Amino acid sequence: NSRWSLAGMTALVTGGTRGIGYAVVEELAELGAAVHTCSRNEAELNQRLQEWSSKGFSVTGSVCDISSRPQREQLMEKVSLIFSGKLNILINNVGTYILKPTTEYTTDDYSFLMATNLESCFHMSQLAHPLLKTSGVGSIVFISSVASLIHVYVGSIYSVAKGAINQLTKNLACEWAKDNIRTNCVAPSATKTSLVEDLLANKEFLDGVVSRTPLKRTAEANEIHLW
Ligand code: NDP
Predict the structure, then answer these.
(1) Greatest C-alpha distance within the chain
(2) How many angstroms from the chain centroid is the CA of residue 82?
(3) I need a labelling partner for 144 at 20 to 30 A (CA). Which of 99, 170, 188, 203 fits?
(4) Under a CB-based contact definition with an 8 Å cutoff, are residues 153 and 97 in contact?
């Protein structure tokens, strides 16, 4: 096995039909991993699975709303079945935002964003722990955001959830090292995906981002590398 091969490895990437998750599925599969992914839109998921299969990639998928606890449990049961109880890589990728002034957020906005962006990652890590441990070599990667570190105009709830993910990363890295599970997070800045299409179409927002970015441009999804 070369250092840059994932042959024989198994991976679960949440939210792999578009954007950063899509690019991550492709990269892991290209390196030889068997990958499982999920999203809420069955038609789009099936379309992606077909494309990957025609490229010769080993990718399976489930329809799953990652903000739902029972659906997360079902997803991990399926993953355990497909990968015979062994998972090497968990990419906690799903995340979204609602942009509002803090004074206008509703109780539902708060619950939805925290369930989708933070609780899902926490619970998926809990559910994956026995599989990651059994595999012998485990790795968890959270997709945080630059909004976890500085103020950017994506709303306070999103930023709070991403800040919590940074701390969760540190806790799990220390707690699960004994099980040979590494835990890391990646904190991208503005990346061209469906999530931020509207934001990046706003010239003032885009100019602000670019002026604060040394590369003077936004990122492509396949530039968000995980190792
Ligand atoms: P996109 O919205 O482009 O893609 C999100 C993917 O996740 C889709 O496949 C979507 O499919 C799926 N998804 C969304 N919600 C759920 C859900 N509840 N259950 C299951 N699947 C879901 O997002 P990005 O690729 O831009 O973002 C990925 C991660 O990167 C997020 O955590 C985001 O916060 C983070 N990030 C993004 C940045 C950016 O500029 N794009 C910058 C910094 C961080 P479907 O909708 O069909 O379910």
Answers:
(1) 54
(2) 20
(3) 203
(4) no
- Ligand 1 contacts CB of residue 120 (under 6 A): no
- What residues contact residue 163 under an 8 Å CB cut-off, 6+ apart? 148, 149
Per-residue pLDDT at 149 exceeds 60: yes
Side-chain half-sphere CA neighbours of 186 within 13 A: 20
Label residue 92 by pLDDT band (50, 70, 90): very high
Residue 190 structural domain: 10-223
CA distance 121 to 91: 9
Percent of the chain with pLDDT over 90: 96
25 pLDDT tier (thresholds 50, 70, 90):
very high
Candidates 24, 39, 165: which one to mutate for ligand 1, based on the most atoms within 8 Å of Cβ?
39
Number of folded domains in the chain? 1
Instruction: Please give the Cα distance from 199 to 213 (Å, whole number).
Output: 16
**8 A C-beta contact, residue 33 and residue 6:** yes
* CATH at 199: 3.40.50.720
Q: How confident is the model at residue 3 (pLDDT cuts 50, 70, 90)?
A: confident
Indicate which atom in ligand 1 lies nearest the CA of residue 188: 43
Domain membership flag for residue 3: no
Ligand 1 centre to CA of 178 (Å) is 31
Q: State if residue 44 touches ligand 1 by the CB under 6 angstroms criterion.
A: yes
Query: Is the ipTM, as predicted for this complex, more than 0.85?
Result: yes
